[in-house]
Design a protein that fits this description.
Radius of gyration: 32 Å
Number of strands: 4
Order of helices and strands: HHHHHHHHHHHHHHEEEE
Helix content: 55-70%
Shape: elongated
Distance between the termini: 100 Å
Strand order of the largest sheet: 1-4
Largest sheet: 2 strands, antiparallel
């Protein structure tokens, strides 16, 4: 049998199959081995072998006999380390899309965040991260029974929270949620809980942002309403409830007023 003869030839050369694979696997201290044309060709054929993933999977699943338990554990640890490295590379790639100036309070920049577009960016640029989280959050039973929760939006929140925990710079989604929460009167204790989870900005940040954005919008309205503006001022309409100077409890219904 050719396989048996090849293994006997390896033994006669004073090697084992493990040592043989080790020596041809890009060992830096074995330059003569690495530069040999025959070895380079065989190494390339092994790497490009279509059934290599299946071979590794069979080795991972085998656990009977001496040494197999340790081998399975080592292969699983190796696989996890590789997935972790790939996930970190992908997160570094998509963080720039989540970046925002924490102290800028730029309303236009905050509201331009589009969750649907961001989901597509994560799917395209962080396939490994998306695949892992999707396998965790998505089940056939979930599709049949759930009517409100969205796995895609849940994964977006997971990725955004992880990026925000790594640095306060990556907070576009958190800023958008925080402004809505603050405008709707969410209490401080709930802000603190969401902030600890990486879902929102802090209560103090949200309060400062609301005040700053309000001042800027008021200044904009004042500029537009100024008689010296390019349009010569604007028409202001307001309701017909006018408070009297002498008594704030009394009102004077004098109809709709307008000014230019």
């Amino acid at each position: 049998m050719a396989v048996v003869q090849a293994l006997k030839g390896i033994q006669e050369a004073g090697l084992t199959l493990g040592l043989l694979v080790d020596f041809i696997s890009f060992r830096t201290e074995s330059k003569d081995v690495a530069e040999d044309q025959l070895i380079s060709a065989e190494r390339a054929s092994l790497i490009c072998y279509d059934n290599l993933p299946d071979i590794l999977d069979r080795w991972r699943k085998r656990h009977r006999g001496h040494g197999y338990g340790r081998a399975r554990k080592d292969m699983l640890e190796w696989a996890i380390n590789n997935v972790n490295e790939q996930a970190w590379r992908e997160m570094d790639c998509i963080k720039k899309y989540l970046e925002s100036n924490e102290s800028g309070f730029e309303l236009e920049h905050i509201i331009k965040f589009n969750p649907i577009d961001m989901i597509k960016i994560i799917q395209d640029n962080a396939h490994t991260v998306w695949s892992i989280l999707q396998n965790i959050a998505w089940l056939k039973r979930q599709v049949l029974e759930n009517r409100t929760k969205s796995p895609n939006m849940t994964i977006l929140m997971m990725v955004s929270a992880a990026a925000y925990c790594s640095s306060n710079e990556y907070c576009q989604l958190q800023q958008l949620l925080s402004l809505d929460m603050r405008a709707n009167g969410v209490p401080v204790w709930l802000f603190d809980a969401f902030h600890a989870l990486g879902i929102s900005m802090s209560y103090s940040w949200s309060s400062r942002a609301i005040d700053m954005i309000g001042k800027r919008q008021l200044e904009l309205v004042q500029q537009l309403a100024s008689p010296t503006a390019n349009n010569g001022g604007v028409l202001l309409l307001y309701d017909n409830i006018n408070q009297c100077e002498n008594n704030r409890a009394e009102t004077d219904d004098s109809g709709v007023e307008s000014e230019t």
